[in-house]
Amino acid sequence: MSATTGTSAAAKAWSVPRLGEPRDVLELTAQDVPVPGEGQVAVRVRAAAANFPDVLMCRGEYQVRPELPFTPGREICADVVSVGPGTTRATVGDRILGLTTLPTGGFGEFALMDQQLVHQAPASLTDAQASCLFIGYQTGWFGLHRLARIQSGETLLVHAAAGGVGSAAIQLGKAAGARVIGVVGGAAKADYARQLGADLVVDRRSEDFVEVVKDATDGRGADVVFDPVGGDVYQRSTKCIAFEGRILVVGFAGGEIQSAKLNHALVKNYAILGIHWGLYNSKNPQAVDDCHEELCRLADAGAIDPFVSEQFSIDGVPAALQRLADGETVGRVVMVADGD
């Protein structure tokens, strides 16, 4: 099916005309409703989840650097309003989720998506929840299951456990039957990690996670470490990794890219695994589809339940992204369309 929106009416969208902090550079603009090209869909945004890469793109510090100006917001739940030629994965009226196609991102009323990044949204989740099901949960699932091969009864240590990918890792670890230890910074984030289901929560501001993990495992250590922070957090995690454990390198939110001491991995018999989930969308899209099917099954069964801590309207985007940039948010923060 091929269709256009049939209107040239302007729509609101946040634009980044220059690089800098979100509160300084985001401008609310009137833009034409997008018309999809070959293999694309145009969507009306229901909800758009904020992710740290949105902040990095505003600063010009992310590996993806769209031309200026652009609208940030990669992860959305939306309704398909028109489809381009050759589109087979969605039809007008579908409620979908997935990644937007820059420069037409999700922090606006309308967005564009390439069809290979479009997936049907599960009816069991609200719009805000569905907007959070893609990046974090896919990253967590690929890391824990496809790479680390986590097993029921193992101990999983999750750093930045109150963040987007960390919170998903907690729920996915529990769904896999693991014992989950979450590391956070501050009492509010500790409470949130407990709500997500972590068996034990470590406040890094007042506790040493290395000692807590050793005590909790009778000296054995964590079987799997999920690390989106990097730097010193990675280095110290090697001190509490179990024999034949697996350390998942998920990102470097701490700002420092660590060097791995391979002699240490050798003498302790642990594996270091990197997870760049975005590559699967081009290298193995069928695996992404299969993962989405499994995540929908888990959501429908109540085994995972994306927890949205804050919802805001389109007018609140700059403030919300800045709070995310400054480390002041807990859990997932989501822009929800007016009236939803």
TrEMBL record:
Record-annotated membrane-spanning stretches: none
Keywords: Oxidoreductase
EC number annotated for this UniProt entry: 1.-.-.-
SMART domains per the UniProt record, alphabetical: PKS_ER
Superkingdom of origin organism: Bacteria
Xref: InterPro entries: ADH-like_C (IPR013149), ADH-like_N (IPR013154), ER (IPR020843), GroES-like_sf (IPR011032), NAD(P)-bd_dom_sf (IPR036291), Quin_OxRdtase/zeta-crystal_CS (IPR002364), Zn-ADH-like_protein (IPR051397)
Entry annotated with the keyword Oxidoreductase: yes
CDD domains: QOR1
UniProt cross-references to Pfam families, sorted A to Z: ADH_N, ADH_zinc_N
Molecular function via GO: oxidoreductase activity
Domain Enoyl reductase (ER): 21-335
Protein name (record): NADPH:quinone oxidoreductase family protein
Organism expressing this protein natively: Flexivirga alba
